[in-house]
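Sequence in, structure out. Go.
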Amino acid sequence: MQKEYEIWLDGEYYPRSESKISMLDRGFKLSDLVYDTLRTFDGKVYRLDDHMERFERSLNYVRIDPGISINKIADLILEVVEHNEPLRSAKQDDYMISPIITRGVGYRLKDVDTKPSISIFIDPIDFNFYSLMHLEGAHGVISKARSFSSEQLDPKVKHFSRLSYVMADIEATDVDPQAFPIMLDMEGNISESVGSNVMIVKDGTIKTPKDTAILQGVSRKAVIETALALGIDVVEEDLQPYDLYTSDEAFFTSTPFCLIPISKIDKRQITDQVPGPITTQLLAAWSESIGLDIVDQTMKIGNKKN
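Output:
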């Protein structure tokens, strides 16, 4: 009987705890890889096409040819989900699924004509970590570490060059151990958090940084589509820390938790109502669209694992 989730690596299944790649792999040595992260709702993959389109754009940008089509990668994701379904159902879990493609083993920087390594990784969602944030709101800290500019490495590419994220998170923890870092671009505008997008509400309008210098989040896209369907205006524009401090509501969007309200920025309380009225509307409509209460699932599974 299967005892733990199994990942798919170059054509074979391995228990998560036993999966390995070569230390000579350029993904390990140079972060020379791209990936994407999807999630399931009750075992069903969410917005597969959106994620695959973004994944294909990332592959094309870094010029990695995986040797198989993007449709085949999508099929592999569904196969891995089906393979792990009996264990997921027994655990009443949902999980994140990450297709990861490295350029392969190479001994020198110029060894780019290599055989790519393809893996489909599964990671159970840590609902316990997010459950309290739905009740009390998440915290954010404006970090000194800046996000990549498009002149350096285009932020629209989903890659593993994450040392700037690590440093931003360390800085945020120094200020507030519970906080997510919020990074600025080189001009001092809000870009994104580590692994999530940032959005605010002001005078009934949702505002979000322009998507030219951020990761074009699938959850961010879902929020924009949901808001417009509800008749809520959405504006993409440059935002500064001032806009966060003076917002009526603010929230993070990301694949594992979908949408989480923000209650504090730099240890300043920005709202006493968590979640705010528009955040509540968005969560309700999003939950209805997928046939599952996002907050209720987070609370039930999170509390069960306490």
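Check: The domain at 130-304 is CATH 3.20.10.10 (D-amino Acid Aminotransferase; Chain A, domain 2). The two ends are 26 Å apart (CA to CA).
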